[in-house]
Amino acid sequence: MSSDNAADPDEDSSQPTSENLDTDEVTSVNDPQSGLSSSETSGTLYDPTFSDSTESEKVTISTLRLERVTPFSDLNDIEFLEMMYEEEEKARHLNIENEIFTLFLKENDPFAVAELEHLFLAALTLKSAMSQRSAKSSGSSVLGSSAYIAAGKSRSENASSASILQMMSSRGPKINLSTKTEMVVRAFEDRQAAMAAFKKKAHATRRRLKCELEEFNQREDDITDSMAAFEYNIVAQGVDPLTQRIPAEKFLNYMYAWLKNSMQNIEKMRLRTSSMRLQHSKTKSLLAQRKELSLNVTAVDFDRLEIENKHFQKKIEQKNEHLFQLKKMTAGINLVITQHRKYMQGQTDYFTKIRNDVKKINKRTDEINWEADHVQSELDKAEETYDYFLGLQKSYKVPDVMEYVKLKGELREVQKSIKIWKRKKYIQDLAMDAALREMKHLTGSKRVDKNWLRDPEEVLGYNINTQNSVPDLTTLCLNPEKYDKNS
Predict the structure, then answer these.
(1) Are 430 and 456 spatial neighbours (Cβ–Cβ below 8 Å)?
(2) How many CB atoms within 10 Å of residue 39?
(3) pLDDT tens, 292-327?
(4) pLDDT tens figures, 256-267
(5) Is 5 a residue whose pLDDT tops 60?
C-alpha cells in the first residue's frame, strides 16, 4: 500500500501470503549462492524483450533451484519457530501499517483506493497465471523448448503483465518517518474520537435500554400484582356461596378501588415527572450558562488562574511550614509547661502541707496559750486560796466552847427546818400533780396552761378576802365566764 512496501522487494519477500505461496515456490526463494532475489527472477523470467537463449537459461536456473535443498534445512526446530514468530510479528506490523495507509487514502483520496484495489486484483490474477505458467515451464524443462514456445504464443498477454510488474516493481516516492508518525497520530486521534463518540452513543443507548427494561419490569410487576389481587379478591373470595357466582357489586367496587389507586399512582408519577422535568430544565440552563462561560473564558484566564493557584499554593506551603514550626514550638513549650506545672504542683502540695502544719501549730499554740491562761487563772485562784488559808492560819483563833455549842444547836435546828420544808414541798408537789391531772381530765387538754399556775386574784381580778365565798378551782375552770361577769 505504501511506496516503500511496493518498491522494496526484500520486504515483500519477507512476508509470504496465501496468494503468492505458489509463485514463491518457484520464483520467490532467494538463493544465497547465486545472489539472485525473487524480484530479479520474477522481473526477468517473463520479460518478452529478452532473447530466447536468456529465457532458456532462466528456465534452467529455476529448474535447478527446485532441485536444490531449501535454506531452512540448516535450522533446528527452536530457530525455525523463532524465525516464524519474527516473521509473524513483521507481518502483523505490516498489516497495521497497511491499514493505517488505507485509512489515510480513504480520507484524502478515495479514488486512489479504488484504483489500488483494482491494481491488487490485477496483480493477484497475474501472479496466479504466472505461477501456473512457471509450473508448466518447469515440467517441460527437459525438452528445453517448451517455455520458449509458450512464451512466444502468449507474447501479447505478457506485454500487459510486464507493464503491471514494471509498475509494481518501480520505486515511488518514499514516506519518511515524520509523515508516518503524523499519519499514525492522526489515525489514533480519529480512532479515539470515533471511540469517544461510540462510547457516548453506547452510554445513551444503554441508559435508554436500562430505563425501558426497568419500565417493563415495573409494568410486569404491576400486572402480576394486579392479577394476583384480582384472583384473590374477586375469583377466590368474591364468589357468593349461595349462587356460586361473582356479584357485580363486588366486581364494580373492586374495579373502582383499583382505578382510584391507579389514578393516585398516575398522579404521583406525573408529579415525579414534572419534578424531574423541572430539574432537567434547571440542569439544562446551568449547562447553557457554563457553555456560555466557557465561550467567554479564554485559555489566558486559565493560565492566569493556574499561575495564581501556584502562588497561592506556595503561600499555603509557606503557611503550612510556618504552622508546622509553630506546632513544634508549641509542643516544646507545652512540654516545658508540663514540666513546670508538675514542679509547681509539687511546690503547691508542699506549700499546702506546710500551711496545714502551720495551722496545726497555731491551733496548738492557741490551745497551749488557753491552757496557760487557764492554768494561770487557776494558779492565781490557788494563790489567793493559799494566801487566804495562810492568813487564816496565821490569824486563826479557837472559838469559845459555849459559842460552838450554840452554833451547833442552831445548825441542827436549821437542818431540821429544812427537812420539814422538804416534806411539805413534796406534799405540795403531789397535790399540784393531782390537780394538774384533774385539770387536764376536765379540760381535755394534754398540756399544762400557764394560767392554771397564776394567782387567782390576778386571774379573777378581785380580792379573795373581800368576797363572801371563794370559788373552787375546779368550778372556776369549768365556769370562767360566770365569775368574769360577776367581776
Answers:
(1) no
(2) 20
(3) 887 777 778 888 889 999 999 999 999 999 999 999
(4) 988 998 899 899
(5) no
Which one, of 1, 237, 36, 239, lies nearest residue 123 by Cα?
1
Residue recorded with cell 535454506: 71
Domain boundaries, the chain: 3-175, 200-292, 454-487
- Whole-model pTM? 0.34
pLDDT band for 106, please (50, 70, 90 cuts): confident
For 137, counting Cβ atoms within 10 Å of its Cβ (0-12 exposed, 13-18 middle, 19+ buried), the class is buried
Residue 69 has phi, psi (to 5 degrees) of -80, 140
How many Å is the Cα radius of gyration of the chain? 70
Tell me which residue has cell 509557606. Answer: 318
Our measurement of the distance from residue 185's CA atom to the centroid of its chain's CA atoms, rounded to an integer in Å, reads 40
| pLDDT (tens digit per residue) in 61-72 | 444 444 444 556
Contact 147, 140 (CB under 8 A): yes
> Which residue is it, cell 424531574?
276
Residue 365: other Cβ atoms inside 10 A: 12
Phi, psi (deg, nearest 5) at residue 356: -65, -40
Q: How far apart are CA 448 and CA 439, in angstroms?
A: 8
Residue 161 and residue 129 in contact, taking contact as beta carbons nearer than 8 Å: yes
- 165 and 43 in contact (C-beta within 8 Å)? yes
Burial class (CB in 10 A: 0-12, 13-18, 19+), 386: exposed
Does the pLDDT value for residue 290 go beyond 70?
A: yes
CA dist list (Å): 117 to 111, 122, 254, 345: 10, 9, 74, 100
